[in-house]
Amino acid sequence: MRLKTGLLGLCLLAGTAGAADLYKWKDANGVTHYSESPPAGQKFEARRIDSRGGVGLAQEETGAAKESPQCTQARQNLKALSDSRPVMQDTDGDGKPDAKLDESQREAQRNLADAGVKAYCPQAGG
Q1: Do the beta carbons of residue 49 and residue 55 sit within 8 Å?
Q2: CA atoms of 120 and 78, how far apart (whole Å)
Q3: From the CA atom positions of the chain, what is the Rg in Å?
Q4: Which end of the chain is more exposed for a tag (fewer CB within 10 A), N or C?
Q5: How far is the C-alpha of 43 from the C-alpha of 45, rounded, in Å?
Q6: From CA 44, how far away is CA 21, in angstroms rounded?
Q7: Is the pTM of this model over 0.85?
Q8: CA angle at residue 73 from 118 to 38, to 5 degrees?
Q9: For residue 121, what is the DSSP state?
Q10: Can you tell me the distance from the alpha carbon of 116 to that of 46, in angstroms, rounded to the nearest whole number?
């Protein structure tokens, strides 16, 4: 049974692992570029390409690039740590939160989350 569950998980991962975003834009000289990451502050087209060669609908976007998953996670962490509700953590490695952060731990984690936002999130006007 465990083997079947593991194989099913691998199949699900394999189906999504081949999907990627592709970005297309033109620079100031009119040269077309393609990349796996969007250009900062420029107009671009985004396409989703799956492992079977299928292409999703193109979207035109202007301005700042999409927020990275690291940026999104850092912002969520900072919001949770800035809230007054208790924050729990897993101290024994079983995947279940079992200890409440005290105020000094919370402040240390808030500083890390703030550093993550500064490192991963595009700055407005920059």
Answers
A1: yes
A2: 13
A3: 20
A4: N
A5: 7
A6: 12
A7: no
A8: 70
A9: S
A10: 26
Query: Is the distance from CB of 43 to CB of 24 less than 8 angstroms?
Result: no
3-state secondary structure of 18: coil
The band of 106, judged by pLDDT with boundaries at 50, 70 and 90, is very high
Contact between 25 and 43 under an 8 Å Cβ cutoff? The reply is yes
Q: What letter does residue 25 receive in the DSSP assignment?
A: E
Q: How far apart are CA 56 and CA 78, in angstroms?
A: 33
Distance CA(115)–CA(92), nearest Å, equals 26
Task: For residue range 50-63, list pLDDT tens digits in order.
Answer: 766 555 545 555 44
- Classify residue 68 by its DSSP letter: P
Tokens 């099913």 belong to residue: 8
Tokens of 88: 């729990």
Helices 103-120, 69-82: axis angle to 10 degrees equals 150
Q: Which residue has the tokens 């690291």?
A: 70
